[in-house]
Automatic annotation (TrEMBL):
One of its GO terms (biological process) is carbohydrate metabolic process. PROSITE patterns: TONB_DEPENDENT_REC_1. This is Uncharacterized protein. Keywords: Membrane, Transmembrane, Transmembrane helix.
Length: 790
């Protein structure tokens, strides 16, 4: 039963620790530490305020075997106010630790003077200091043959580096500082080796926006240039690849990272600036990205590669807050579908997409349902979530069938969290490596039964954490109690029938993780953005130019990157939706002012502007009269016409109208998609009808009749005059002399207006003819009082 606690990674109970420490104090109390000068007086020295800190910066080899020489190095620092004299650093081998909880206990209090145990290896293997001045750090390095350590049975030994000395206030030899760690001892191959799977996560935060340039290459726009810093020599991602290439690990990759680096490698990427501005990314980063991708392609050859859904969607947030929003699960399916294609295109390997990985391996029934909804049938959980309840005395294998054809691959919590925290200091890194190896060896020593153990570290290890992880994995692979195994083999391994398969309830999901989840409003905005994208894409001639970048941006909007970063997540999703609104707004109706009709029928033009670089179509423009009794469009209340516009152009669509009465009628122009969905904002304008009345028509008709009668009278008079002139000309020369060219014509014989009337009859320009429509390329609103003739 004790080992059940060991598996959970718990330490010895506080009461037991208190009893042990109290016993040590009581045992030393009767002794006169100042007179006997025994190490038992060390607690008093610590309490006096004059401790010395000991930092163990390196330990090589991490897991020695027969014939090795162990070298430890580090620093000692006098934190007190008095100089320490007669000091020396010595090595101490403590008792063998037979349980994982015992290892935990030492790891939680590595520098407690009360915990000093074991005797020094010997003066020959010690480093002496004549004096340690206050506040001064002194370096030490000690090498000792392993056979001088008097190690016995195989197992994990407590190992300490202690500084002993004296001060003027306490002039006797005492332990003033100690650093305890672990010495794994398995000099020969174990009878049964633990099969160990180490996941090597290659993920990053979100870097790309939804914006792309208008050119054929669609230049990507990045949020910032942080990705280049990670790819640079010594950067986090550079370290993950350069360290991982020589390790037997399973690569777990976010395809979004590959897509982002590939976009940078293609060149001409841009960085988001102030407002809507962008600036060009440094050209040297293109070579940086290319080199990193080339290194990664070589590193994964022959290794198992697991592709997470694109942008690593937050499964727990989706399960707890997103499933109530229609369409949320479809985004997970899209992210899963595109994952394999992205990895294969960039890395030229075929990845496995069978795995889902909730944050920290924390699961509950809702998370399991969501995780498997997109096709994954293996969920990477962790043992501090899927806890053992059967009181096993050993750590069971990772694979657990949990029903419905789903396998929970349960990573060991203690091994998986061994490299969290700040490991920038060498001492912290060394302790993390030694504890990891100690836990691994202790797991192997629990039973002769071979088991498959999985290590799933934090998603985004720092460069220092990656270095510590790599050091531990190298030592593990070169050790004698473990053998490497890929994740698929671990998932297929025979499950332990005694291991728990019960998924914990939603109520026990860790509170600190729940507080970091994406809010429900995030999924509502994602759904709204998707609806807008669906409406927009139907009018495009090349949908991929919009659907692909926005589809991936929507995936990024539900990424684990935004856990605990609610403001940044909101800003990103707002940016995606806002940019989509801007693009959709590039196809719009041009505003119109009041239009005047001077007759019963006329043609009204409405202009549609397309400022996109690609043609648009599948649109219908509807013109609706709000007062069809006064003004009809195409003979009815509304009329529709299809719209197809080339990129960067405008088109005037003409509608025939008919007026039935004078006055002002309001007209609404609205674009629709072919499936009847409104597109964009409507344009509303007034049409002022000035219809001609019957009285005016009667007056005009009377005038025309008078003109006709007058013309007929002049015609008959002219005929008579011509006949008379012809008769007089035949009578003789007398008539000829009287009507010669020099004599003026008689009044009323010729009307000067005759030629003007004839010209007017042949003139094709009539007041009733329609005026030309607005030119297609005009994007300005119609002028005030725009007049449209019949």
């Amino acid at each position: 039963m004790a080992e059940a606690a060991d598996f959970q990674g718990t330490s010895a109970s506080p009461a037991r620790r208190w009893l042990r420490r109290t016993g040590a104090l009581l045992a030393g109390a009767p002794l006169l530490a100042g007179l006997l000068q025994l190490p038992a007086a060390a607690p008093a020295a610590a309490a006096s305020g004059d401790p010395v800190s000991v930092a163990l910066d390196s330990m090589s080899p991490n897991a020695p075997t027969d014939g090795d020489t162990l070298t430890v190095s580090g620093t000692v620092t006098n934190n007190g106010k008095q100089a320490v004299t007669g000091a020396h650093v010595g090595l101490r081998v403590g008792p063998i630790l037979n349980t994982r909880s015992g290892i935990n206990d030492v790891a939680q209090h590595p520098d407690e003077l009360q915990g000093v145990s074991g005797s020094e290896v010997g003066d020959k293997y010690a480093q002496k200091f004549a004096e340690l001045a206050p506040g001064v750090a002194e370096h030490f390095s000690i090498s000792v043959p392993v056979d001088k350590l008097d190690l016995g049975a195989n197992g994990v030994y407590e190992f300490g580096v202690a500084l002993s000395g004296q001060t003027s206030a306490q002039p006797w030899q005492q332990v003033l500082g100690v650093q305890r760690t672990f010495l794994p001892w398995q000099p020969s191959d174990a009878d049964t080796r633990t099969r160990t799977t180490v996941l090597w996560p290659l993920l990053s935060t979100v870097h790309m926006t939804a914006k792309t340039g208008a050119g054929q290459l669609q230049t990507p726009v990045f949020l910032n240039d942080d990705l280049a810093k990670e790819l640079a020599p010594g950067g986090r991602l550079d370290q993950m690849v350069s360290l991982g290439k020589d390790l037997d690990v399973t690569w777990v990759i976010d395809p979004d990272l590959l897509a982002s680096v590939d976009a940078m490698a293609s060149g001409n990427y841009r960085l988001q600036g102030e407002g809507d501005t962008t600036v060009a990314g440094p050209k040297e980063h293109q070579a940086l990205a290319k080199q990193w991708l080339a290194s990664l392609q070589k590193a994964v050859v022959g290794k198992e590669v697991v592709a997470l859904p694109f942008a690593d969607p937050d499964l727990a947030s989706l399960a707890h807050r997103g499933t109530s929003v229609t369409g949320s699960l479809s985004h997970l399916k899209d992210a899963t579908d595109v994952a394999a294609t992205t990895v294969k295109t960039v890395l030229h390997v075929t990845p496995s997409t069978d795995y889902a990985w909730p944050v920290n391996g924390a699961v509950d029934p809702s998370i399991m349902r969501v995780a498997t909804s997109a096709g994954a049938d293996r969920v990477i959980a962790r043992s501090d979530s899927l806890q053992e309840t059967a009181g096993l005395s050993y750590t069971p294998s990772a694979a657990r069938p949990v029903g419905g054809g789903t396998t929970a691959v349960v990573a060991d919590a203690k091994l998986s969290t061994a490299f969290e925290g700040d490991l920038t200091k060498a001492a912290d890194s060394t302790l993390a490596v030694q504890e990891f190896l100690a836990q691994s060896l202790e797991i192997n020593a629990q039973t002769d039964q071979q088991r498959s153990i999985v290590v799933a570290p934090q998603r985004l290890p720092t460069a220092a954490q990656a270095q510590a992880m790599a050091a531990a994995v190298r030592a593990l692979q070169g050790g004698t109690w473990s053998q490497a195994q890929d994740l698929t083999a671990a998932a297929k391994a025979k499950p332990d029938p005694s291991a728990t398969t019960r998924i914990p309830s939603t109520s026990v999901y860790p509170t600190y993780l729940r507080r970091q989840e994406l809010p429900a409003s995030a999924f509502e905005q994602i759904a709204r953005t998707q609806d807008k994208l669906d409406d927009f894409q139907v009018i495009l001639s090349d949908q991929s130019r919009v659907v692909t970048p926005f589809g991936r941006a929507i995936n990024r909007g539900m990424s684990t990157s935004w856990r605990g970063q609610s403001d940044d997540g909101d800003a990103f999703r707002n940016g995606v939706e806002g940019w989509l609104d801007d693009l959709a707004g590039q196809v719009r109706l041009i505003d119109k002012s009041e239009t005047k009709l001077s007759g019963r029928s006329a043609t009204i033009p409405v202009t549609v502007q397309n400022n996109l670089v690609q043609p648009v179509g599948h649109l219908v423009l509807r013109l609706t009269s709000t007062q069809p009794t006064r003004l009809k469009i195409g003979g009815k209340a509304y009329y529709e016409q299809p719209v197809d516009i080339a990129g960067g152009h405008a088109q005037s669509v003409k509608f025939t109208t008919s007026a039935n009465a004078n006055g002002r009628a309001t007209v609404i122009a609205q674009l629709y998609t072919e499936d009847g969905q409104e597109y964009g904002a409507p344009v509303t304008f007034d049409v002022k009808v000035t219809e001609v009345t019957p009285t005016v028509m009667l007056v005009i008709g009377g005038g025309v009749l008078l003109l006709v009668l007058a013309g007929f009278r002049m015609y008959t008079q002219r005929k008579r005059a011509a006949a008379r002139q012809a008769g007089e000309g035949g009578a003789g020369t007398a008539g000829e002399d009287s009507d010669g060219p020099g004599n003026p014509e008689a009044p009323g014989d010729r009307l000067p207006e005759e030629s003007d009337s004839a010209a007017g009859a042949d003139d094709p320009e009539q007041p009733s003819d329609p005026a030309p429509d607005t030119a297609p390329e005009s994007t300005d609103p119609s002028g005030t009082g725009e007049r449209v003739d019949r």
